[in-house]
Every structure is written in C-alpha cells, then in structure tokens.
Amino acid sequence: MSGLLGRLGDWCARHGRAVLALWVIAAVLLTAGSVLFPGPVSNNVSIPGTDAQRAHDLMREGFGAGLDPGGTVQIVLYSPDGPLTAQRRVRAVHRAMDRIRQVPHVVEVETPYRVGGLAPSMEIGLITVKMEGHDNSKLAENTKRLSAAAEPVRRLGIEAVPADSSTPADKEIKTGASEAIGVVCALLVLLFAFGTLVAAMIPIFTALVSIATGLGVISLLGHIVDVPKQASIMATMIGLGVGIDYALFLLSRHRKLLADGVPVHEAVRRVVASSGGAVVFAGGTVVIALSALMLAGFPLLRTLGWITGISVVCAVLTSVTLVPALFGLLGHRVNALRLPFMGRRGSHGSSSGWASLGEWVARRPWGVLVLSVVVLGALTAPALALKLGSLDDGYADRGTDQRRSYELLHAGFGPGMNGPLVVVADLETRIVDREPEPAMLRILKERVADVDGMAHVADPILNDAGTAVLVRAVTDYAPSDPRALEVVEDVRALRIEGATVHVGGEVAAMADAGARISERTPLVVGVVVLLSALLLLLAFRSPVVAFKAALMNLVSLGAAFGALSLVFSMGLGSGLVGMDPPVGAESSYLSTLFFSVPIDTYIPLMLFAVLFGLSMDYEVFLLTAVRQSYVRHGDNRRAVAEGLGSTGRVITSAALIMVAVFVAFIAYPDPMVKIFGVGLAVAIAVDATIIRGFLVPAAMVLLGRFNWWCPAWLDRILPNLSIEGNDEEAEAEEPSRELVGAARG
C-alpha cells in the first residue's frame, strides 16, 4: 500500500494543476447541484417491528384526514389581554381559520371553540389543522405557511405559535456560524503551529473542498435514499475536524523533509507513502466505527452513520491527492508569508519539549501509568450517573416556535399535552353496527382513562373498515419525564378481550428507540472494537498493539461520558454551555446555570462510534512514529520517547483544532448539537493529552519488545499492509528490521 500511495502522491505532485482543478470543479458542481436540486431530507424516525410503529401503521388505515403522523399542525393561540371568547377575538380567529383553509392540502380546520379546544383560563386555545396529500418531509415548510395564514389574530394582539407533530429528532438543523467560528479557531492554531500563512491555509483549503464535496454528495443522495436532517451537521462537524487534521499530519512531515534538504517531489512521495498510509488507516477506523451503526436497529442511526462516513472518505481522498498536488505546486513556497512574530516555528516535526516529556515518561513508566489511571478513573466515575431519556421541546432554545408552543401548551393544558399518546386497538372482530356506540369503544376509553397518570382521554374513533379503534390520551407528565414512559407501559399492558392495544406518539416512539438501542448496543460496541483492532493488527502486525489501542480508546470514551454526566445529567454547568432551563424550572439565578438535562437514548451510541474512530486517529499516528523509530534501532524505550517527541506537537495541534471545532458547535442552539460538542471536545482533549501523552507511552515502555510480538503462524497469514512506508531513513538501516523479526518470534 505504501508503494501505491507513494506513486499516487508523486503523480499528483507532478500534475498539481490538473488535480487542483478537478477537485475545485467537483466541489463547485456538487455544491451548485445541491443548491439548484436539493435532495429532500427525511423526518422518518420509524423503527420497524416496534409497538409504536404498529400503532402508526394502523393510524394510516382509514381513520380519516390528518391522523397520519405529520398530518396534523396546531396553531396555539394566546391572548394576554383577555379571554379568547370575547366577540372581536372570536371574529379574528374565524378570519384566520378561513385563510388557513385556503392553504394547499388542508382538508379540515378545527375551531378552538370546541370541547377541549380552550384552556380553563380561556386565554389559550388550539386551532387544529388536518392535512392530506402533502409531503411529510416538508412539514416545516407547510407549518410556516399555516402560521403565516394566521396573521389576522396577530393584528389583534393574539399570539399565534405553530406546533407541528414532529419530534425533537426531526427538527431541521442548519449550519453556518459555528463552522465559521471553527474554521477561524483552526486557522489560529495552524498559524501558531507553522508560523506561515501559506502553510496554515493548506489544511483549511483542503478541508473546505472536502466538506463542500461531501455535503454536495449527501444532498444529492436525498433523491435516492432517506437522508436524516441531522446528516449535514454531523458530516460538517466530523469532516471539518478530520479534514484539517489529516492535512496537518501530512504537512508537518512534508515541511520537515524539506527542511532536511529533500527535493520537493521526493519529499511528497515519502510523505504520502508513509504518513498517507497512516491517514488511510485512520480514516478507515472512523468509517468502520460509523458503519457499525447499521447494526443498531434504528434506521435513523443506521443512515446517519454511513452518510456521515462520506465526509470522512472525502477527507481521506483530498488528503492523499489534493494535498500532495498543493505541495507540488507550491514547492518551497509552502513556507511563504512567514509571520514575523512566529520566527521559524514549525519547520521541523519534532519538539524539544515533547521529546523531553517522552524521555521523562520512559524513565518512570510505572508512576506515570498509575497516576494516569487514577486521573482517568476520576474523570470516568461520573458516567455512572448518566441519565438517558427523551429530550423534548421544553429544552429548546428560548425564542423558538418549538419552545414557545411547548410553554403555552404546558401552561394552558398541562405538561402531557406536549406529548399525547396515540392508543390504537387492533380488533379481532370487525365492528359493523355503529349505532348505538359499540361497547368495545366505551370499554377501551374507560380502561385507558383508569391508568394511573392519565389526565384526559378523548372520545374513541373507529376506522372506516371497523377493524381498529383510536383514542388520543394526555398524561399528567411531560414527554421528557420518566413517569410518562411508565404510563406508556401500563397502557400497553392492558388486556381487552377481542382487541390488541398498541401505543404510538412521541413518548412511545422514544421509549421503543431506547429499548431497541439498549438491546443492540453490545453488538455495535463489539463489532466496532473487533474490526478496529483487526485493522490495527493488519497495519502493525501486533496483537498486543491492536488490543491496547482498543482498550485505550474505551478509556477516553469513559472520560467523555463522565463529562456529559457532569454537565447535563448532574447539571453542573448546563446553563454555561447555552442550554435554557426547562419549562417549569425555578427562575432563580442558579437555576439558569445548573439544571439537569436528559440525553436522548441514541446519542451515546452515536458518540461511541464517532469518538472511537477519531481516537484511533491519534493512536495510529503515534504508533507509526514509534514503529519507525523501533525499526531503525530496536530500542523500545528510546523508540517510545522519540515517537512521542516527533508527534507530540502535531498531535497536540490537531487535537486543539478538533477541540476548537467541536467547542464552536456548542454555541449552536440545538441541544443535541451541544451535547455532541461537549462530548467530542472533552474526549479529544483527554485522548490527546493524558492518554497519548502519558498512558500509551508508559504502557508501551512497560511492554517492551512485546509491543511488536506476533505469533509466527499469525505473521505468516497476515497480508503485508505496513503503513510506515519505505522511508529512506528506514531503508538505510534495513538490517535493524531483524530486531523486529526477533521480537515477533
């Protein structure tokens, strides 16, 4: 592989203009295509085989307009100056309803002056709009049109806030300011690391080209497959981080070779043959980890995983083609436009400070190992208190329609109105006689109403075929309240002769998602760990290295989950990351800074896949450097110290860039993005400092020559995919490779 990559890098360097033009054209065309022909995004959070999905399937069978999920939109009215029943307000409401009826696909508009349509205070009411024949994937656009049609009530001072039937996972996430902040922070780190403007711009430029290409592909894929609305933000977060990092590793190595007097094209060939191989393997571990989400049993996660992997593939491709093309075009001008206050910083890949740290760790491995384990244990301990649940709109950003409608429904009708249950009874015997009311309908309503925690149960509806009965029920609890899940289970436990009860709705769907993910988590974790370890085994031909790398990555994950627990589950600073206190929380100053936030059940598994892959990046780059040193002289302790010294600065710079990118996304208003930002930033920071700087080197020193031990039978059957390349430095001391063979034997 190193020979193939070396030839590829050399060809790209010699045909730099053509390669650069091809990438720029591809990025521009794909971006233009995604703007002119944007692929639809999906709000499909269905989970085949679950009880909630069965309830939703039954809802589509003859219950009339608007009962299909995504077919109902509510306009929440609030009159702060008096009751909605005042004559002039009634006239304004009716004018708004007439305008709403003119919106395409609207088939029924229910007045707030019906039973259950007005709150007891008479100041809050609901206009319920039922739609048919519309595109569910464009629910947000339909809701905006309906909200605009309610303008007559706003002229009278009545607040009109839309509330659609989507879940928090459906909310469209738009990117913009966070990416700009991340790019600026990354540029500052690169300027400090390299000291020249041209060198700092190379990783930024290649990452932007990579992201533009990846997002264009993802958008156009929306015409073929269901693309989740979260795909663009996840692809941008991960693609921006790895795209800059991979180019940074290649650039650091290239500048060192140039400083050593190696000709430009020869330096490019060596860089791509060695560091390029490390990039390919590092990217492979990220893609493997994301692809394993296909086993989670949750279509949203499955699609989100492999689509996010597209951005990683684009980052790898630009790193091994576009980056060497830029090296060839720039030549020694890669060091042009040096910043005067930076001196000659970054000319070499090594750092005396990191080299000294490597030697210090190598002299006292036991002490460093024990201290690192204690610190990491302390960081991981809070993870035991991690609280999973449903993150409802009560935690949305203040000022958004989602948050305001949630507040009004909570105040007027109770917390359960924000997450009503949809109870559907599948009948064994078809009901034909509908007059008087069939006993089955009465029994179902009474049994559901008797469940503890039930606040209100609407009149049952029989479908056209007489084969199913639907009842809408409102609990006493908010969707994020764990007690709401208990009510769902109690309703599902009802046994009614002649009928099978199913429960749908937001609360039921999130409960089923949590159960499915919990069931599949061991499988996903096992597959990710085993495949990543196998990839490292192929790369370094050492079972010990592969096992140790997987173990260290799990340790960094523990620290990330510990941080999430501290900030969100324990509430120690949730307000400091921009979260707003939930509806109903006390309004004291401290309550705005410290409050508990549930973490959606799918987020930890997604974080695990992403973090495991990203953490493996630094492991690959560190091990590659250690391996090259060991091949040259066979001294394990010295190889560890030299490996840490040669990669310390570049790994730290790469980690700082990733942390800056992820921290920038914490400023994003969506709670899910904040949670991802905190978890990713903490994990990368811990991984690049405590784990790669202390724990891994200490463990490798203690393992000695066993680091590179491989059973003879395994050594014979493993393909030769060495990623450290055929660097002339190693070739000059080819006899020392016998030391590695002796260690393996």
Task: Please describe what this structure looks like.
This protein is of the alpha+beta class. It folds into three domains: 1-38 and 176-337, Multidrug efflux transporter AcrB transmembrane domain (Multidrug efflux transporter AcrB transmembrane fold, Up-down Bundle); 62-172 and 402-479, Alpha-Beta Plaits (2-Layer Sandwich); 363-387 and 512-717, Multidrug efflux transporter AcrB transmembrane domain (Multidrug efflux transporter AcrB transmembrane fold, Up-down Bundle). The chain has helices spanning 2-14, 16-36, 51-59, 87-101, 139-149, 151-154, 177-194, 197-221, 231-259, 264-291, 299-330, 352-363, 365-380, 401-413, 439-449, 482-492, 506-540, 543-569, 603-633, 636-666, 671-703, 712-717, 728-731, 737-744; strands spanning 41-42, 72-78, 106-110, 124-131, 159-164, 227-228, 388-389, 421-427, 454-457, 461-462, 468-475, 499-504, 599-600. Strands 8, 9, 10, 11 and 12 form a five-stranded antiparallel beta sheet that branches. It has a four-stranded antiparallel beta sheet with strand order 3-4-2-5, sandwiched between helices. Strand 10 and strand 11 form a beta hairpin. The chain is elongated. Residues 200-329 form the SSD domain.
What is the gist of this entry?
With 745 residues, this protein is of the alpha+beta class.
List the helices and strands and how they pair.
Blueprint: H1 2-14, H2 16-36, E1 41-42, H3 51-59, E2 72-78, H4 87-101, E3 106-110, E4 124-131, H5 139-149, H6 151-154, E5 159-164, H7 177-194, H8 197-221, E6 227-228, H9 231-259, H10 264-291, H11 299-330, H12 352-363, H13 365-380, E7 388-389, H14 401-413, E8 421-427, H15 439-449, E9 454-457, E10 461-462, E11 468-475, H16 482-492, E12 499-504, H17 506-540, H18 543-569, E13 599-600, H19 603-633, H20 636-666, H21 671-703, H22 712-717, H23 728-731, H24 737-744
Helix pairs in contact: 1-10, 1-11, 2-8, 2-11, 7-8, 7-9, 7-20, 8-9, 8-11, 9-10, 9-11, 9-20, 10-11, 10-17, 10-19, 12-20, 12-21, 13-18, 13-21, 17-18, 17-19, 18-19, 18-21, 19-20, 19-21, 20-21
